[in-house]
Design goal:
This protein is of the alpha+beta class. The chain has 25 helices and 12 strands. A 5-stranded mixed β-sheet has the order 2-3-6-5-4. It binds adenosine-5'-triphosphate and magnesium ion.
């Protein structure tokens, strides 16, 4: 990797805006011309490792088809960034000067999505190639362009009183599109016209230094879109990039702005953060940088609770083991369910709420049901857990109680329950160092391994024990 970068950084010398102009002369639509003092790096094909064989065939098809129809088209974002880093991209994004309607007229398999900014999704079975029209950016990019003696007047994206983008559906040029992107390493463009990689924002230099840097003024960029805070943390953890000082500094203070983001978008972002194979690292970074409170206020409160250090410590261990397990499952391509992780993350808040309701006189069962609704409602306000997942979370919690009832009928019913496996896994994780819970989870582990005759024998014994008045396990709310 290092040598690869060395070679392409040596070669880039002399590659200037004029190269882009040369490039543009080959395209049927001429891209905006960069002024000579505008720092542009163009890497020729032999100076970088982005190869068509590393790009999905469908993305390549989209790039060529747009060019053939007379439009510019570039691979951009994670697709280029990850290949340059020697990683396999998760998906491929394309940028073009064609408007969404023009894109739609080129592809039969195209669906236009988005209200604020229309994007085209080109559908190839399960693969979706996202095609976005070049967009003009924020004020920061404007001033940056002017600092670079760009005098061209552009329509600006609009922000509200908090600086948040309320309109960024202004089409722009390739250069404007580069400056409206979030991080320098995300603004690298690859073209199949001459296989060059184009960089306006010094993203190649940052990639080489393994640095994640916001384009423009970080405070302004976070205010425009606070989700960039989550993207900074997620991408730095996923790609092992260190967040540049000025990009990192405002995060703690500005993370409250996440409250202005819709809970549906935060649900999407949480899934990306927690279900992409780097959950443990990302969760700990969110906590360390003071962001977790804006997403999981109840959980953060329990983790910070000074009432019982042992309680918050064991809750933290519980979360950590769930995150590590999730990462391991993803590494071996096993399925993961966000409901399971959320049921762990919200377990201590649930216990706290249950205890309060029992104190008020509710039965353990009723307290559990009511507490589950309360905790989930507060969480959904911030992170919009869809109904089917919140029902699953509630089931996993309710089954924790049922797992303690070792009676024939109950055990046999439970084994058939669609959420049994998740509830049992939850119990095993929750047991941690707790002797009683460990005993219970071991019972279930061993029981599942028995044949039906052996199961029958065991169940008649536990039924007799129960009849003989052996103290029935009570519902425990402590991990
Ligand atoms: P990955 O797909 O690996 O998670 P990515 O960087 O490709 O990472 P996407 O969500 O696919 O992330 O976005 C594609 C590109 O769109 C980004 O690389 C970036 O250039 C731009 N982008 C995405 N979100 C934002 C944002 N909030 N602000 C500015 N630009 C953004
Ligand atoms: Mg992407």
């Amino acid at each position: 990797m290092a040598s690869l970068f060395k070679s392409f950084f040596k070669r880039k010398k002399g590659a200037k805006a004029s190269d882009v102009n040369k490039l543009s002369s080959k395209t049927s639509k001429v891209p905006e011309i960069a002024k000579p003092d505008f720092e542009t790096t163009v890497l020729k094909r032999d100076a970088h490792n982005v190869s068509r064989k590393d790009i999905s065939k469908n993305a390549i098809k989209v790039l060529y088809k747009l060019n053939d129809a007379g439009y510019q088209s570039y691979l951009v974002g994670g697709g280029v960034r990850d290949i340059l880093l020697g990683l396999k991209p998760k998906d491929f994004d394309v940028a073009t000067d064609a408007t969404p309607e023009q894109i739609k007229s080129v592809f039969r398999n195209c669906r236009l999505i988005g209200r604020r900014f229309r994007l085209a999704h080109i559908l190839f079975g399960r693969e979706v190639i996202e095609v976005a029209t070049f967009r003009a950016g924020h004020e920061g990019s404007q001033s940056e362009l002017q600092n670079n003696k760009q005098t061209r007047k552009t329509a600006k994206a609009l922000t509200d009183d908090d600086g948040m983008l309320v309109r960024d559906n202004v089409y722009g040029t390739l250069i404007e599109d580069a400056f409206r992107r979030d991080f320098t390493v995300n603004a690298l463009y690859y073209t199949v016209q001459d296989f060059t990689v184009i960089d306006y924002t010094k993203g190649l230099k940052d990639l080489k230094a393994k640095t994640l840097r916001l384009i423009g003024d970080p405070v302004e960029r976070y205010k425009e879109d606070p989700v960039r805070i989550l993207r900074a943390i997620r991408l730095s953890c996923k790609l092992n990039l260190s967040i540049e000082k000025k990009t990192l500094e405002p995060i703690r203070e500005l993370s409250v702005l996440l409250e202005n983001i819709s809970n549906a978008r935060l649900w999407e972002e949480c899934n990306k953060m927690l279900l992409s194979g780097h959950a443990e690292k990302t969760w700990n970074a969110l906590y360390k940088e003071g962001v977790s409170n804006s997403l999981f206020s109840q959980t953060t409160h329990c983790l910070k609770s000074h009432d019982s250090k042992t309680k918050s410590k064991s809750f933290n261990l519980f979360i950590q083991s769930a995150l590590i397990n999730t990462d391991k499952r993803i590494a071996i391509k096993k399925s993961v369910n966000p409901a399971f992780l959320f049921s762990v993350i919200l377990w201590a808040p649930l216990e706290e709420c249950v205890a309060k309701l029992i104190e008020k006189g509710l039965s353990p069962y009723d307290a559990n049901q009511k507490a589950a609704d309360q905790v989930l409602n507060i969480q959904r306000d911030r992170v919009g857990i869809p109904k089917r997942f919140s029902s699953m979370i509630k089931e996993i919690w309710t089954l924790q109680y049922r797992l303690t009832i070792l009676k024939r009928k109950s055990v046999l019913h439970l084994l058939e329950h669609p959420r049994f496996r998740a509830a049992y896994d939850f119990l095993c994780l929750r047991a941690g160092e707790n002797k009683e819970l460990k005993e219970l989870s071991n019972w279930w582990t061993e029981f599942q391994e028995l044949n039906s005759q052996e199961k029958d024998n065991i169940l008649s014994k536990v039924s007799v024990q129960n009849k003989n008045g052996r103290k029935k396990r009570k519902f425990k709310t402590k991990a």
